[in-house]
Design brief:
Two copies of one chain form a homodimer. Chain A has 214 residues and is of the alpha/beta class. Chain A is 21% helix and 29% strand. Chain A contains six helices and eleven strands. The first copy, chain A, has a nine-stranded mixed beta sheet with strand order 5-6-4-3-7-1-8-11-10, with helices on both faces. In chain A, strand 5 and strand 6 (124-128) form a beta hairpin. Chain A is globular, with a radius of gyration of 17 Å. The first copy, chain A, starts with a strand and ends with a strand. Chains A and B meet through strand 10 and strand 11 of A and strand 10 and strand 11 of B.
Chain lengths: 214, 214
């Protein structure tokens, strides 16, 4: 059985998204800027149709690693594609375009039942209405020997951390302050979750630290 | 003229002190545990009367660096020694013992005028009642060519960051969640403070990242 993991970028003041999230700017003011380290890499550009001209240094290795060995994803409904209002329209297939960067089954946590939505490139969105344990169980089954990646958002990551099922995670700290928005780690009680630093990788645009939960 | 800098340890969820700070536990629940990386080093033990048997690896280098070239400190009154109530008693000389680990002038921000308090080992506490600019000016004058270190707490660090006078700082991220307490970086507006990663040093007990403000 593979690992349960996540990989996420946060600001130095702990935010994964800035203030004022909205349809055109789902990561809020300054939120997209956190991911500069990623957007400039060859791995990201190849995945998102930008060719191979990107940077190939340490940040690129981190991006490539994050795709490796992932057999399924779990994500919250907002990460799939916005608020409850969008769900009346069955033609809405989320933020991620016709060929989402997942290429494996993606289990979306929601209260609204919906038929699976197959996309180009191997991604299929499955909608799970009976909770995080069920979503993880389905994702594990779909992943086989591969890992399950918790894609986000912050609330979903916190729920899985509290449930004690995360094996490993990576935080990429961008050298920026957002001053408000959504905190990655909020309300996680003292001493309930024990962590160990596995490694730190430094680049000018982010510090990537991997932790093991034990 | 030297630099204005600070060096501080925070939890992965961004706290420098845990919940329930009190006289016997000024860093709150779990707060002291953040500094494990420091307590085990030779540099810290030598400074705090524990001999030279401590660890001499990367964490130790970080501790030694933090003492180097510092000509004066600025700190808040709580970091000197607790709340307003303690200030009526002129015999109270703070948390730091007879021979505080500073060995240079320390400027304490307060609303209560008080004569300077000379301690053993070169530390003298000066009490500044006319604001952060005045404290920095006095500290710069005392430091000469040396650096001025903002010792904390978090609110004092935030005030100097907002004032735009900090040149460089180091954050040591301990692999722990505190779940509550005092956040190091709070209310620092998006895009007002530009940062650059200078270097990251990894150890099992902390990730030390140095930033330049530009």
């Amino acid at each position: 059985m593979g690992k349960v993991k996540f990989s996420v970028t946060m600001s130095l003041d702990g935010y994964v998204a800035g203030p004022n999230p909205r349809f055109e700017e789902p990561l809020g003011d300054g939120g997209e800027g956190l991911h500069e380290w990623m957007f400039q890499t060859a791995g990201w550009k190849r995945e998102h149709g930008g060719g191979e001209e990107g940077a190939t240094g340490r940040d690129d290795e981190i991006v490539r690693e994050s795709y490796e060995n992932t057999g399924a994803y779990v994500m919250g409904r907002q990460m799939f594609g916005g608020g409850e209002g969008d769900w009346g329209d069955e033609s809405w297939k989320g933020w991620w375009g016709d060929d989402p960067p997942y290429h494996v089954p993606v289990f979306v946590l929601t209260h609204h039942p919906r038929e699976p939505v197959p996309m180009e490139g191997g991604t299929t969105f499955h909608f799970v209405t009976d909770g995080i344990e069920s979503a993880l169980e389905q994702a594990r089954a779909a992943a086989g020997d591969g890992d399950v990646q918790i894609a986000g958002g912050a609330d979903v990551i916190q729920q899985y951390l509290r449930a004690g099922v995360v094996d490993e995670f990576q935080v990429s700290v961008a050298p920026k302050f957002l001053g408000g928005g959504v905190r990655l780690f909020d309300g996680l009680g003292n001493d309930e979750i024990k962590l160990q630093v596995v490694r730190a990788v430094e680049s000018p645009l982010a510090t990537h630290v991997r932790y093991r939960v034990f």
